[in-house]
Amino acid sequence: MRPERVLESAPAKLGQRGAQAAAIAAELRREIIAGSMEPGVRLGQEQLAHRFGVSRMPVREALKLLVADGLVAFDPNKGARVTQISLEDLREIYEMRMAAESLALKIAIPELSNSQIDKAEALQDQLESATFGDFGGLNSRFHRTLYEPCDRPRLLAHIDSLSSAADRYLCTAVAQANHAVQSHKEHRSLLVACRNRDEETAIACLTDHIIRGGETLGRYLEKQQA
Amino acid sequence: MRPERVLESAPAKLGQRGAQAAAIAAELRREIIAGSMEPGVRLGQEQLAHRFGVSRMPVREALKLLVADGLVAFDPNKGARVTQISLEDLREIYEMRMAAESLALKIAIPELSNSQIDKAEALQDQLESATFGDFGGLNSRFHRTLYEPCDRPRLLAHIDSLSSAADRYLCTAVAQANHAVQSHKEHRSLLVACRNRDEETAIACLTDHIIRGGETLGRYLEKQQA
DNA sequence: ATTATTGAGATTGATGACAATATTGTAATG
DNA sequence: CATTACAATATTGTCATCAATCTCAATAAT
Question: What is the Cβ-side half-sphere exposure of residue A107, based on CA atoms within 13 angstroms?
Fold first, then answer.
């Protein structure tokens, strides 16, 4: 048995008591999304426990959280693996995002305050000068800022989960400069529609934005797999 | 400390190894949905472990599963409680169901085989002569049968989760005979539209059905809370 | 040569014990 | 009498260990 990476790349010493599982899940999620944990990789509990310097229990709980996000698959008595990515899965995620996010935006727009739109715009500014690694997170936060006023906790949690799933695909393709440029344009249009409180246009923008993103990623993935 | 119900009301001896958590979750879900576990009730791990005759670990995993379904809320270091029910939550569930289920049906209809429609019709037959306790489960299965051909695992899992959440409200109101009668009519209309592979009509039926259901339940809950 | 079997090793699922945190009841003080 | 500080209790989070299951290679049989 070789030494492994014996210790924690964990950023902030794994939080307090009761937050270890969440911290481990966050770190693993980051790595899976970033692609450093490739699909199909086996996630041994003992191995992860050793790496993070904790027992197997918090690791198990962390894995459960990732299963809920669809980033990890779990066969009873057989262990956990990073889920495969596929065109079908990508398509499904984007279909669901479209349904969930257009619903959230529709409800949120009448409640949206100017300061919240400002906040979204500031995030978009950051996004346009961000590096690969930060793109996914900032992008999610941009969208979430616009949806938050809808005051629907279940729906927002669902959207977050889909965002995590989508980020896996996004990160592999965001290197394509044109994808980012196109995305930025669409975000700006969406912001304008929100400022006007123009529900119809805003939802049309969002729908197009998500469709287009899904298609771009799909093409990229297809090319990469071939 | 009083003896509690020392042992398992569990139906099928709690399955084999690795299925205990799922079995416990299923039993708790049943009780929460049926209303015998009232909202706000504290779910002590030790207590549940004692009651089911197992250790606390499978109980913890079961609680996690219920959290994912939104039936249980979990504060770190403070424990689990049955989530409150509310008009806002009911509304949110039905909004999400509408978005998710109309998407699933839209994709499924072109793939729907006659035998699958027959299966759904058979379930509807059962549903019309079912008792309160079976209503929720059969109702979910009826809907799921129509969606299954869409071949979208994430989406179907999401719909299942929403169904569980909706059943909590459904069970309190299904006693109203007129709700069931109305629901049956709508199911029949939906089946006709599916047989014709008439996507537009089918989705309109489904949307109306879900909206109407949500409104009926909302009125009932409002009345009951007052 | 191919397939079935079986046994060792590895890994997961579950248990009971310990440490940290929250809750509650009591007493002291204004 | 109300309020706050503190101690006792209860409950959760984690750990270390045991038991059951799976993997996989080596062996034997057809």
Answer: 19
Q: Which of A162, A183, A171 is nearest to A136 (CA)?
A: A171
A75 and chain B: CB distance < 8 Å anywhere? no
**C-alpha of A165 from chain center:** 5
Average pLDDT over residues B113-142: 92
Residue B209 CA to residue A154 CA, distance in Å, equals 21
Amino acid A173: pLDDT: 73
Rounded distance in angstroms from the CA atom of residue A21 to the C1' atom of nucleotide D4: 36
User: Which pLDDT tens digit goes with each residue over B49-92?
Assistant: 999 999 999 999 999 999 998 999 999 999 999 999 999 999 99
Cβ of B93 under 8 Å from any chain A Cβ?
yes
pLDDT one-digit tens code per residue, B104-116: 999 999 999 999 9
Contacts of B153 in chain A (CB under 8 A): 92
Instruction: Name which of A212, A146, A204, A137 is nearest A171 in CA terms.
Output: A137
Q: Is the CB of A55 under 7 A from strand D?
A: yes
Residue with tokens 């992860």: A48
Q: Do B154 and A70 count as a contact with CB atoms less than 8 A apart?
A: yes
- The two tokens of residue A171 are 């990160």
Asked if A56 CB < 7 A from strand C, the reply is: yes
What global pTM score does this model have? 0.90
Is A40 exposed, middle or buried (CB count within 10 Å of its CB: 0-12, 13-18, 19+)?
exposed
A82 with A41: CB under 8 angstroms?
yes
The B residues from 176 to 205 touching A (CB cutoff 8 Å) are none
> In this complex, do B89 and A154 lie within 8 Å of one another by their Cβ atoms?
yes
What is the rounded distance in angstroms from the CA atom of residue A110 to the CA atom of residue A108?
6
pLDDT value at residue A178: 76
**Is A92 in Cβ contact with B155 (below 8 Å)?**
yes
Nearest alpha-carbon partner for B173 in B212, B221, B211 = B221
Radius of gyration of chain A (CA): 19
Which among A172, A206, A219 has a CA at the least distance from the CA of A97?
A206
